[in-house]
Amino acid sequence: MRGGRVGRARRRGWLSGDAMAGRRGVLRPSSLRLKDGRRIRFPAVTAVLNVTPDSFSDGGLYLDARRAVERGLELAAAGADIVEVGAESTRPGAAAVAVEEELARLVPVLEGLGSRLKVPISVDTRKAEVARRALALGAAVVNDVSGLRFDPAMAAVAAQAKAAVVLMHMRGTPATMGRMARYRDVVAEVKSELAARARMAVRCGIRADRILLDPGFGFAKKAADNLKLLRGLPQLCRLGYPIMVGVSRKRFLRRIAGSADAALSGATVAASLLAVLAGASLVRVHEPGPAAAALKVVRAWRALGAV
Ligand code: HH2
To answer: Which end of the chain is more exposed for a tag (fewer CB within 10 A), N or C?
Structure first.
């Protein structure tokens, strides 16, 4: 592990796998550099702000643009490294939203956050036109739950804007994905499908160091598949891209811990922490405060090195 490959990787700011990942030689970037020069140091917290009537966790709470802007500022103050704004629910069975409607929800919020938000903005959309407008309004990251499959124009928009891109694994669409959770080896299959999405993104001109991958917890996955993916994250890390994990308040955690608010919050922090210890670089959560505090503990623990 001291040879040329690791030496080169260290100079480029890459990390080798940690003790929990259990694999020497697993290399992944230690940070993400955004188009404006800002750097997100890993592990980091992406906080969710849904300006929708129907999102499963915060649907209907922030449809009013002023309340949404306040919430965005609150999320940053609570420890979010990135605030992610979404205007179309992708919960199982959700109906698609037209571009005009998605923009009508999103644009006033992005304009309102504008220079007031000190952390980078990510936009959660599958549509190229929505991404294009959001990037023009200052967003630096595009999170596409379809992994660039939904809109053929998305890759070019992201490439041209030099956006960082989260490619999430899903099969089908939110309306059909429930029928598509059929795997013989969920970790191997998600890994190879994500690798294919990353290759496609690079072919379309998106630089490899701007790509993040996400196994898509709850998207075309049964409860057991989600748990296996959580355990199997070190294998996904071997792809060499930073991994984002969005387990926050999801149904498989409800089945384990129950639906009471405190149970869901605790389960979210526990699962996010397990993900980071298994090699994930970013956790996507609805409550950034507890997640950011948990990551501080991870950093302090890692800083000790071997004892
Ligand atoms: N989960 C949701 C939405 N977008 N993006 C990524 N990369 N990873 C995820 O796990 C993920 C995601 C679902 O959560 P939420 O945004 O709260 O709900 P809804 O889609 O109903 O708005």
So the answer is: C
